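worker-3 :: picked Glycine zipper 2TM domain-containing protein
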Amino acid sequence: MNAQAKLMIAAMGVCALPLAQAQVAEFEDFGHVTRVQPRVERYSQPRQECRTEYVQVPVAQQPQRSAGGAILGALAGGVIGNQVGGGSGRAAATAAGVLAGAAIGDQVSNANRAAPPPGYQEQAVRQCRTVDSFESRNVGYDVTYDYRGRTYTTLMPRDPGNRVRLRVSVEPDERQ
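worker-3 :: tokens ->
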């Protein structure tokens, strides 16, 4: 073996000595459970509550119009236009009299007619509001246990029963 290889092996051996001394002994043991308390978190879950109400909504009513005044006005206007017009303009005067008489008769007949009271119609109205709904969820168990005269507390995902399995590691204190 050459000198460089020997030097490399010696250096690795020297570096491995502290690791060999710092060995950790691990084993399993059990602790006695003295208290188990579920850890519950309460959180808000907003949700919508909706309901439908029926309300009376006013509906505008159209006034009932009478056609009688327009008909009488058209007849009277046609007669007057026919008497006023002469020759070839008689037909045009009659037509103009019918139109003017119908318009005037409609206004006179329906001028004083009062609008009827508004009618009502039932309409569905949906009303929604957001409310907080509180829910609880178990996030684990606070477990208190004794091991060799000392008391410890930890959070565990499930209730361990009356004893808890422990992984114990023993390591020398190198500060001596």
